[in-house]
Amino acid sequence: MTLSTHILDIAAGRPGKGIVVRVEAFGGDGWRPVGAGTTDEDGRITDLLGKESLVRGEYRLTFDVGPYLGPEAFYPEVVIVFRVDDPSEHHHVPLLLGPYGYTTYRGS
What we know:
mainly beta
C-alpha cells in the first residue's frame, strides 16, 4: 500500500512545511533508498514511495529538520526506524517536532 507522514511543529502550533524526508528499506546488504519527498503547506507527504511498493521488513525515515529549525537546531535530523508486517495496510508515521524534542507514533 502506501506510506505517508505529517509533521507538526508543536512549539509554533503549525505544520512543518518544506521539510525533506527520505525513506530507506533494510535488505541483505544494508539500507537502500526507496523514496523521498518534501512536506507541503499542511506539513504532509501523502505518498513517500512513488513507484515502489511496501514489502514486509524494516524501513527508516530520515527527516532533515535542521534547515527548518535553523542553524542552532539541537536535532538537525530525526531518524525513525519501523517495521512493516502487513504491506497491504496503509502506514502513516507522524512526527511532532519541537526545538528540543520530538515524538512519533503509528498514525492512521
